[in-house]
Design a protein that fits this description.
- The protein is α+β, with helices and mostly antiparallel strands.
- Helices cover 13% and strands 28% of the residues.
- Strand 3 (73-78) and strand 4 form a beta hairpin.
- The longest helix is centred in the middle third of the chain and has 8 residues, at 109-116.
- It is globular.
- It binds a DNA duplex through strand 3, strand 4 and helix 4.
DNA sequence: CTAAAGATGTCCT
DNA sequence: GGACATCTTTAGA
């Protein structure tokens, strides 16, 4: 009961995993320090059927982790200055991953604030690039197994009473895509874009 | 080899 | 609402 989410959790339809990750707790251990937060916003990305996905046109050096075993971290660098943290999730051998777009900080607040250069809790991790900066997630963690207790893993968590899941189109993909593959906790102040 | 876009964040008006 | 920073990755010549 006090162990990380098992591989079976991630070995399911990518879109279902994206939805079910809301409320789960991300744990980052740096030395004796522990950073913890609740996932409040995600996006699903698949394979050949999803033009917006890095894996849309087959395997490349960057996206190979998306084709590997579920429950691992897919971390990539973008816009010349930001990292994005994804969780590999799919059934069978098709590629798939879930982008973690926003987190509600729970522990290690002062450390996160220092890393971010911000004190307002609301802006510590309310965006994919902010999440990786607050939690010190960089390229070194690409491919990291999230199902074993370590410097980066996920733990069980729940939505609070009254919290509802909302969905929308994905953000920042420059295409006319109408799929509702973005999931977030409605009315949660730590979501990147409450209305989108 | 070269070029263009990019699953973004910040500061400014 | 818009400019701009900054550089990796990928596709195409």
């Amino acid at each position: 009961m006090n162990s990380p989410l098992p591989r079976a959790f991630y070995s399911r339809e990518t879109i279902h995993v994206a939805r079910d990750l809301l409320g789960m707790r991300l744990v980052r251990e740096i030395g004796r320090r522990q950073l913890i937060g609740r996932i409040v916003e995600t996006e699903a990305y698949r394979g050949a059927d999803d033009p917006a996905s890095h894996a849309a046109r087959g395997m490349t050096g960057r996206n190979e982790v998306m084709f590997g075993p579920p429950g691992h971290a897919y971390v990539y660098f973008t816009y010349g200055m930001h990292f994005c943290f994804n969780i590999v999730a799919h059934k069978s051998t098709l590629p798939g991953a879930v982008l973690v777009r926003a987190i509600e900080p729970l522990e290690g607040l002062d450390y996160m604030a220092r890393r971010r250069g911000r004190t307002n809790l609301r802006y510590l991790a309310n965006g994919p690039g902010k999440v990786t900066e607050a939690f010190a997630i960089a390229r070194l963690l690409n491919g990291h197994d999230l199902t074993i207790p370590s410097q980066l893993h996920l733990m069980e968590g729940t939505l609070r009473t009254g919290e509802r899941v909302a969905r929308s189109r994905r953000i920042g993909i420059g295409s006319n895509d109408t799929r509702l593959w973005r999931f977030y906790v409605r009315s949660n102040p730590f979501v990147s874009r409450p209305h989108a």
